[in-house]
């Protein structure tokens, strides 16, 4: 099990709890510290965290956010980088879960930030890693959401334990610091964490998953659900089917719900996905004509090195000289055995399939020495609350 440890009071309380739990259950503990490089003392903080982890007998790994930092939107960029680094480290170590030390105060601060115009969501107790594709198969668990920050730190102080105070937490430049200052230490009891959206999960569970990473429903199964839940499910399905990382605008998904209610056939696009609605079914596939994200480009395959292509397929080969690219424009060169397999894939999904291209120009969908599997279904099920506990097998 992996735990994200910043050195602050909340994460120290989490680390101690995780250490006790893993020791009692015979699990190994990996302590991950992300050095964002944003404070002059960050190297000292990393060394402090390493000392604490080693004193507990836990394995420690320092992860560094390198490269240029944005001049605007720094907290969001740092958060995205942090999740990517944590997910990659967890995957490499064989951990399916990363523990994070968010508390009830983080929920209160998120709600205050929304009152001030931000779109920050409440942290959830259990969710898939928001990093994609780095976080495929990795989940985030926040077991301290019912605890208050002051209570945790009082317990730590009672044990004569110390922690790091990041000055950014009091810097009014940042929205979270302003929200924290407005709330102060006198905020009442911890807020209730909203329950999982049962309507969303129910609608998502009715989906059918097909060859090539397709997602489909009977239209009647969508019309029965609340509009808000249907819009959310379609947004998630489109994001997963297209392999993207940026969800669509809510207004775009709402318009699709209205179209579904009319009962008419239609074709629409959403977040890089194509939605094909017939009289009885709705099919969601990758939009092969959307190359703006660059994911459909031809890419070399390195031997024994997994590649996530277009955010939808993980491809690995033991053969040299192969490339992977979209099938569009290459169907005339497709090998006969691949044509037979293609018959099971809906026509709307065929052009965006990953095609294997040999050095002499042959095109195949399957080949000895090459493994290729879709990431779409597992990502969709994780994002819609259909995975409620630690996976016994991690995808990819």
Strand order of the largest sheet: 3-2-1-4-6-5
Q: How many beta-strand runs?
A: 18
Contiguous uncertain segments of 5+ residues: none
Q: Which band does the percent of strand residues land in?
A: 15-25%
Q: Assembly type of the shown chains?
A: single chain
Overall pLDDT: 92
Q: Name the shape in a single word.
A: globular
What would you report as the Rg, rounded to the nearest angstrom? 23 Å
Number of helices: 13
Helicity level: 25-40%
Q: What class do helices, strands and sheet pairing give?
A: alpha+beta
Largest sheet data: 6 strands, mixed
Tell me the span between the first and last alpha carbons.
18 Å
Can I get a quick summary?
The protein has 396 residues and is an alpha+beta fold.
Q: What does this protein look like?
A:
The structure is a single chain. With 396 residues, the protein is α+β, with helices and mostly antiparallel strands. The chain is 36% helix and 18% strand. The chain contains 13 helices and 18 strands. A 6-stranded mixed sheet has the order 3-2-1-4-6-5, with helices on both faces. The protein has a 5-stranded antiparallel sheet with strand order 7-8-11-10-9. β7 (208-210) and β8 (214-218) form a beta hairpin. α4 packs across α6. The longest helix is centred in the first third of the chain and has 20 residues, at 74-93. The chain starts with a strand and ends in a 13-residue tail after the last helix.
């Amino acid at each position: 099990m992996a735990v994200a440890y910043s050195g602050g009071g909340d994460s120290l309380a989490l680390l101690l709890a995780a250490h006790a739990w893993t020791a009692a259950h015979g699990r190994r503990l990996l302590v991950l510290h992300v050095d964002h490089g944003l404070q002059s003392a960050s190297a000292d903080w990393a060394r402090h965290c390493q000392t604490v982890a080693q004193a507990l007998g836990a394995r420690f790994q320092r992860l560094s956010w390198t490269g240029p930092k944005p001049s605007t939107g720094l907290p969001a960029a740092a958060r995205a980088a942090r999740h990517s680094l944590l997910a990659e480290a967890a995957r490499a170590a064989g951990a399916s879960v990363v523990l994070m030390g968010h508390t009830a105060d983080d929920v209160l601060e998120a709600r205050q930030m929304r009152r001030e115009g931000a779109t920050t969501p409440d942290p959830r107790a259990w969710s898939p890693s928001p990093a994609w594709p780095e976080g495929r198969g990795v989940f985030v668990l926040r077991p301290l959401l019912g605890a208050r920050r002051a209570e945790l730190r009082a317990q730590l102080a009672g044990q004569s334990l110390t922690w790091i105070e990041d000055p950014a937490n009091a810097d009014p430049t940042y929205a979270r610091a302003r929200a924290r200052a407005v709330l102060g230490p006198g905020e009442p009891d911890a807020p209730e964490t909203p329950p999982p959206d049962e309507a969303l999960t129910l609608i998502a569970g009715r989906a059918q998953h097909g060859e090539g990473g397709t997602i489909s429903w009977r239209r009647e199964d969508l019309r029965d659900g609340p509009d808000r839940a249907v819009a959310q499910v379609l947004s998630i399905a489109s994001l997963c089917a297209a392999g993207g990382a940026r969800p669509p605008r809510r207004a775009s998904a709402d318009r699709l719900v209205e179209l579904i209610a009319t009962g008419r056939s239609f074709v629409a696009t959403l977040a890089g996905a194509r939605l094909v609605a017939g009289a009885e079914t709705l099919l969601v596939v990758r939009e092969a004509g959307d190359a703006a994200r660059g994911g459909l480009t031809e890419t070399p395959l390195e031997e024994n090195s997994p590649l996530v292509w277009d955010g939808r397929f993980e491809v690995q080969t033991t053969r040299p000289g192969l490339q992977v690219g979209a099938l569009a424009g290459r169907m005339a060169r497709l090998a006969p055995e691949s044509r037979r397999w293609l018959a099971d894939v809906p026509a709307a999904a065929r052009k965006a399939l990953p095609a294997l291209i040999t050095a002499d120009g042959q095109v195949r969908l399957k080949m000895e020495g090459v493994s290729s599997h879709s990431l779409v279904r597992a990502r969709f099920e994780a994002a819609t609350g259909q995975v409620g506990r630690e996976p016994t097998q991690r995808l990819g």
